[in-house]
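note to self: dont lose this again. the chain is below, predicted strucutre after it. 200 aa total, dont forget to put it in the shared folder this time
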Amino acid sequence: MVRMSAEERRESVIRAAIAEFAQRGCYGTSTEAIAKRVGVSQPYLFRLFPGKKAIFAAASLRCIEDTCRVFAEASEGLTGEEALHAMGRAYVRLIQEHPEGLQMQMQTYIAVAAAEAEGDRAFGEAVRAGWMRLWETVHLPLGADVNETTVFMAYGMLINTLTAMGFPPGHRVWQGLYPSAQPDGSQEKAQEIAQEKSQG
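---
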């Protein structure tokens, strides 16, 4: 059996942590649950990370990095509306295929406020720096237009909220978003509903 390197093990811890923290948040998740998911002991976990908050921070920043990568790959060689729709489609696909990433995002925003209420600004500063990398990744393909970037990011946060609350594809709350930002099946479902109404 091939032994994993410390870096590979660290990566597996981050992925396991995303899955665990996504469900129960920073305070509701035990390091024991993360260690069990990875298949290592808690002491080994703490050889890779100094504590639970460090694991949570690594998981939060990894979600931001993953989103940056998805946007960069989707918009490569594109600008303006082409880039906007390509990034929109890629983001919807990302959160549909990896819902734990969306849940982890939501947990991260809550954790920033909680950490700062306790006087810990370091975590919030790291998340805000990651958010700015995300903003810049979107900003340049959109022609460095502040308004376009703001609207795109605002749509993203609305998509996060609607998805987290479980609104299904085709529900009327999605109709105001451009088609590339709607979950798969929304357009088809909306057309079915419209046809049923016209026939009824």
